[in-house]
Amino acid sequence: MIHSPHTRSVSRLEEDAIDTPPSPALRFGVNYTPRRGWFHAWHDFDPGLAREDLAQIAGLGLDHVRVFHLWPLLQPNRALVRPSAVDQLVRLVELAAECGLDVLVDGVQGHLSSFDFYPEWTRSWHHRNVFTDPEAIEAQAVLLRTLGRALSGHPNLLGLQLGNELNNLVEHNPVSVAEVDHYLDTLLAAAREGLGEGGGLVTHSAYDAAWYGDDHPFTPEASARKGDLTTVHPWVFSADCARRYGPRSPQVHHLAEYGTELAAAYATDPARPVWVQETGAPEPHIPAADAPGFARATLRNAVGCARLWGVTWWCSHDVDRSLADFPELEYTLGLFDSTGRPKPIADALSTTVAELRATAAPPPPRTTALVLDCTPSTRSASGPGGTFFETWMRLRQEGARPAVVLAEHAQDTAHLAARGITELIKEG
């Protein structure tokens, strides 16, 4: 049955309400940013300082961290993966285990907090397109196989991710959709080979342009169909979401939930998990006074998604203002400030996680779905400011719990049944 959203009547739902508690299997963690020296800390890695940071994270009741080394330090030459740098990463995984934390390791960085990190063998007159040059691809595969072998067997290892938001690098490395697919397939296979059978998750990540960017070469299909699960990074500054609608708006408070449902629509496996792998409260998009409420609402709304794997906050510690040239929002994203003191958002996140775990139960299926009909060149309709996005958010405010279904699946009764969908709403 297909309806127009304008003819469907539903009761209003408080924007921050929890429809049902989450599944007991949900994971809650944080992206680890070293307090002293940011990621430059890898130049003179101090296990004692790292353990202090990890103990603070564990003290919030979180169960995992996502960690990042720097590509130029790991692989300064195409033919050299430095054993000492790999050992640092392994040691960090061991320190996390001592604190009771599981770990996802990102391999190729790549891009972190507005800075790009390239080994010199990819730059200047040595320039190689990191996505298309066969030798550059093979070098990254060697790095991932090496990391996988070194990390395999650690019981607290969640898995190995190709790298952080690799699609941030497309501006300097032009690439086609087909070339992205080849790149991802090659590196995912290398990571899986390194970890070995049963060694953990193998994943990749992209920033929001993969979902909202018209004709962006990293596609929603690649995110939702390659690797062991789908990762989403629903940032409130993407497409000016928070400035467009306001920091306390339903659109902001339901953004991670929406991103999870949008990702589920592109999956070919109806049971494929979705990981909200990055979300945070960047100032001034989310003023500091609103950050605790934003954190509570984001978690409470996201856990109403049946396919949610977990939520990993960005990030653990603020960037110290003694470090220059970061965008302003990067300095205040931490749960802890740069001296290690927990901020109000840390308490809000910790308390909410404890409450959700105490009342855990699987959410019911979303029986109503909004049909998404877009092309690669009109993908922005599904982003903030787009017509599809605004229709979904309007339905959510009216009390519906809409899933998302691609137009190509709207007549696929087996697909709809597998997802528990009994009613379709067509935009317009």
UniProtKB/TrEMBL annotation:
Which domain of life does the UniProt lineage start with?
A: Bacteria
Query: SUPFAM superfamilies this protein is in?
Result: (Trans)glycosidases (SSF51445)
InterPro entries from the xrefs?
GH (IPR017853)
Know the name of this protein?
A: Glycosyl hydrolase
